[in-house]
Each structure stands twice: as structure tokens, then as C-alpha cells.
Design brief:
Layout: H1 7-41, H2 47-86, H3 96-121
Length: about 120
Amino acid sequence: MAAIPSISNLHLRYRLWIAELNFDINVLRIFSDHLHEALQQRAETGMQEIMTSFEKKFTDLRGEIDELKNEMHLAKMQLASHVREKEETGVTLNDTTHASLARQYKLLREKLDTLKKDVDAV
């Protein structure tokens, strides 16, 4: 397995990712408000189904975001514990946890980007 960044760099990376995910939660709320407004302005048939579909996507993504944030927070706490125990901030870890979190984060970013394009198309 390839070496991953130092503990302090990983800790910072998780903090940044968590901040971005918090931002994404706000974006999902704004998208929901935007679609509710669009629904009120349009009398087209099928708009309610579209809104219901988007609301389900928003709810599902919010759940994924919350779960990933929790996992990152736990990983961040484990890193801090490791530093306290070892008192070495330059230690490099080979950890499947980071690879898994990075992969999950990347997939979530792709889902959010796709959702943004879908909302823009409405």
C-alpha cells in the first residue's frame, strides 16, 4: 500500500473535508428552497414528481454526508490520540481507513456535482 500523508496533514485534510461537507449541507438546503420556489411558479404537470425525486436525493445525500463526516471525525480523533501517545507529528501511516475515506469523499463529490447540474437543468 502506498504511503499516505503525515498525521498532521491527514488531520488538516479531514478538517477541510468536514468543512466542505458542512458547506454542501447548506447548498442542499438552498437547492431545496430553489426547487420549492420553482414549483410554486410553474403550473406544469410532473413538477411535484420532480420535486419529490429531488427531495429524496437531497435526503439521501444528506445522510451520506452525515455518515462520512462522522467517520472522518472519528478518524481525526484517532489521529490526535496517536499523536498524543507517540508524541511524534511526523509519523507516516499506511492505513486503509484513509484510502476508504478519500474514496468515499471523492464519490460523494461526484454525486454532488451531478446533482448541481441536475438542479441547474430544472
